[in-house]
Backbone:
């Protein structure tokens, strides 16, 4: 992987020379741009790496902090809160979000509160505490914060939301790398890896790279069938369930 980092630095230097850019140049890359989900998929690990140079192509003359944010496809979600009444747990309050990331991971070279202030973190969504969710309808701020914290905590337990304050390593003030795990229950779709270079609490450069997570093999056939012809898929699922129930009954009848 050191060879890939070296090639990335050479390409970055060539880009700086050709464009004559005045701002620092940041070029991110990922170890794989496509993740294939097949039967028995247990998750994978993405390596996000790149380099940053001064406008004249020299190595960085000052210390940079790097923050990498990997975000999955957004989706609407209805979150319900249960309450125990007379010994029975029932649905109580609920809140709907228009667009919640199906996956959200942040890796940084230092703890985020030592890199940026809360205002900057909120602008760039640097950290789970600053994740911007869009509630549907009007909702009181305290209630919104309560449900947002509940959603984040739930997806943290599922391994879909995470923070790693020491997840980025920087070599020689130029090359950086971070490793982010994708669990087996990730949603398919396009994932965006956004990298931020930060100096004295100010974002001085950012760049993005995409990763496509797609189902392959039998899982893809089933998913395509369910999406393209939902009615027939439903009939097939019901028929399969009845057939399996009848077969199980016949087997146990002879035992």
Residues:
């Amino acid at each position: 992987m050191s060879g890939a980092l070296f090639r990335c630095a050479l390409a970055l230097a060539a880009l700086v020379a050709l464009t004559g850019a005045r701002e620092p140049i940041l070029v991110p890359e990922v170890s794989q741009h496509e993740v294939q989900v097949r039967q028995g998929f247990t998750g994978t690990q993405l390596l996000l790496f790149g380099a940053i140079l001064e406008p004249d192509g020299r190595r960085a003359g000052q210390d940079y902090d790097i923050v990498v944010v990997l975000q999955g496809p957004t989706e609407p979600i209805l979150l319900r809160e249960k309450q125990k009444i007379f010994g029975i747990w029932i649905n109580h309050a609920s809140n709907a979000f228009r667009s919640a990331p199906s996956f959200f991971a942040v890796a940084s070279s230092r703890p985020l509160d030592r890199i940026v202030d809360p205002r900057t973190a909120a602008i760039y969504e640097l950290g789970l505490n600053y994740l911007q969710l869009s509630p549907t309808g009007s909702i009181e701020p305290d209630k919104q914060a309560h449900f947002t914290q509940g959603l984040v905590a739930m997806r943290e337990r599922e391994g879909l939301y995470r923070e790693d304050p020491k997840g980025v390593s920087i070599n020689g003030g130029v090359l950086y790398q971070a490793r982010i795990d994708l669990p087996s229950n990730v949603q398919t779709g396009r994932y965006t890896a956004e990298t931020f270079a930060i100096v004295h609490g100010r974002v001085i450069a950012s760049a993005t790279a995409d990763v496509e997570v797609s189902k392959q093999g039998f899982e893809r056939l089933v998913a395509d069938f369910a999406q393209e012809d939902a009615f027939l898929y439903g009939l097939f699922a019901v028929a399969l369930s009845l057939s399996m129930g009848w077969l199980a009954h016949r087997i146990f009848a002879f035992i």
Q: What stands out?
A: Confidence is low (pLDDT under 50) at residues 15-21. The helical segments are 2-19, 118-124, 141-157, 218-228, 230-253.
